[in-house]
Amino acid sequence: xxxxxxxxxxxxxxxxxxxxxxxxxxxAILDNLFYIQGRFPDVAxxxxxxxxxxxxxxxxxxxxxxxxxxxxKKQKSRSVCYLSAEFLIGPMLGSNLVNLxxxxxxxxxxSALGQDLDVLLEQEPExxxxxGGLGRLAACYMDSLATLEIPAIGYGIRYEFGIFHQRIENxxxxxxxxxxxxxxxxxxxxxxxxTFRVNLGGHTEHYTDDHGNHRVRWEPERVVLGVAHDxxxxxxxxxxxxxxxxxxxxxxxxxxxxAFNTGDYYAAVEEKVKSETISKVLYxxxxxxxxxxxxxxxxxxxxxxxxxxxxxxxLQQEPDLSNFHEKFAAQLNDTHPAxxxxxxxxxxxxxxxxxxxxxxxxxxxxxxxxxxxxxxxxLETWSLPLLQQVLPRHVEIIYEINMRFMDQVRVLTHDxxxxxxxxxxxxxxxxxxxxxANLACVGSHAINGVAAxxxxxxxxxxxxxFHNLWxxxxxxxxxxxxxxxxxxxxxxxQSKLISDRIGEGWITDLEKLRGxxxxxxxxxxxxxxxxxKRENKEALAKLLKERTYVDVDPQSLxxxxxxxxxxxKRQHLHLLYVVTLYNRIINNPNLSMAPRVHILGGKAxxxxxxxxxxxxxxxxxxxxVNRDQMVGDRLKLVFFPNFNVKNAQRIYPxxxxxxxxxxxxxxxxxxxxxKFSMNGALTIGTLDxxxxxxxxxxxxxxxxxxxxxxxxxxxxxxxxYHPRHYYDGNAELRAAMDLIASGxxxxxxxxxxxxxIDNLLEHDPFMVLADYEAYCHAQSxxxxxxxxxxxxxxxxxxxxxxxxxxxxxxxxxxxxxKIWKVQPTPVD
Length: 828
Ligand code: GPV
What we know:
By secondary structure, the protein is α/β, with parallel strands linked by helices. It has 34 helices and 22 strands. The chain has three domains: about 1-75 and about 95-120, no CATH class; about 75-90 and about 125-475, Glycogen Phosphorylase B (Rossmann fold); about 525-805, Rossmann fold.
């Protein structure tokens, strides 16, 4: 019982908070239920039990966390700071159990208490602190950093309201505000003493100090507090427990006593409300957010707190900031935190009195920048007047950075073809704007894209001038996803099947999956593989029935497209194919075909009318197709509502076919494509983003390729694209579009889908019609293979066996070697 431990208090018995056998866990769960929540078993709800288990797991993380902090400090390790406006971490209980390796023990402890772990897992609200790929990537990287024993802090915003919940009403998306903190968050530790004051607005004053130095004082209009909230991130099978440190905005004084004393109660709380607004809500992306003052304030708020926290940590050990960049590598996750370049200069020069040149050297060796998109509308710029209003000192600093940069550029480029104007951080115009990507490039020593094709296109197009200037700064790091959450946790059956054959080494060394190829000719193994997929599909079919009331046959081919809704991702191409199949059945009632279930899921940005219309179309077509007696079980179309991390984990394992059909050159990488493959789906896809590399490793005979290349897309666009030409030339395409336009799917109201059809015929910016025929052809090849189940299974196994490259462990190793120059620091 009196197990020794040598943390801070050698004699303290912490066994009940560290022990991991079922008996100890059972007692700990009961203790937490009673002492933290004031509940006892007779009256505890499933959510109470969930929280008691969560606290029990967190206790076991906290010891490792303290030990980790001590180790990093003692070893003076260089740390990675991942600056990101989004961390889409998803539910934590399941992945923490998996990473700690105590799932079986907790399950046993709970069953002794009459509780079912699976029921409790369902209780956890999802921390939806991100929109999609970019935020989820940051979460996968946090998992890999800890697993690889790399000292790291994730810095971001503790949004009170994460991404909205999607409800479907009459086929239309309705946004419901997220309340993930409503019942409390057992995973976070608030740190009220770790608070920074963040200035906003006001003006600057330049003066000369007693020693004759030029100094700048920023007199803000208001001050907001940033309070740290820490979530421990534990690695798989290691003791390293890193930190996700999210900042919550609070008012400096929760009460204005002067206003209160004069009787104006409302004025007294007004300032508090205004301050706290900064971390209130996550902006749903794809929307025009430039011009939103609050969004800029959010970006500056979390960046300022994070940099000052890094400086605080640094000065605990070092006399000054001249070697700050040796202690920290700061990654800018897209341009959302790019104001960090100016803020670090302000902190070093104004507050720590460094000279400009050494300060610049420190800053540019600290930062590196990841670009996640080529879409011009997603490249952030802030209008200068707005920036001036919120961050007057930063405008001065950005001008100074730009002046020095422009001097350098004129010498280096001789302004060939107007390169100077394009490289400038300031965009001319009325009003002038600050280009955040340019600021990030100038202030970073490394710039990377997220897939090979994406990086090449960045170099050739969006960041071409910067590439000409500094080719050595550019490199590629293809994205990856964590196999712990997206295989081990979410697909336990396939995981067990794999481990039974090749051991558990794949969990931290995903290339080991190649060992599965040796079992390809084992008929028993293929049989098991099919059975597992089948069981996963049955589970999803059950869930679909609960959520959508649609019956689907698990024997059918499950074809899935689940991701944010966007025209460039071309959910409408997918829907045109479903309507085409429907037409084929109507025209030939005895048609024999591979029975298919098409599943779509994803959220549309609230202000993106066309994306919302796609959702309506999916429901409208589904409603007609699914109840048509003539169709029967040959074809179903289901929209899975509220696609989020939790739901994703139940969808990937059940997919046969993964739809990755974006217009070539538009999807920077994609990460869902990797998760589907890892779970044994074959991909039908274009040569876009990471699809290119997935096809390379799984083999082109195990991938259904179709469509124009990125080059062909550009070529067609420059030579004049006429979508109507494809409409006129393809009878099936015409029939599908005409049927939608006729009002057949909208109770005779032809107007409903008119904007969608008109847009395709007149503009079709993402060339859906040009790729339609090739897509249908590739889908026929899918059907042919589906008719040979054993061959399909072989290809499914091969996809998994060869997908090792797309582990986020590989991606993080590349960042560590090529960009961050950090080494593992194991914790005993
Ligand atoms: I910029 N991405 C995203 O989710 N949100 C954004 O604001 C931006 C990019 C995505 C890309 O669209 C994906 O192709 C990519 O896989 C993902 O970022 C992670 O790199």
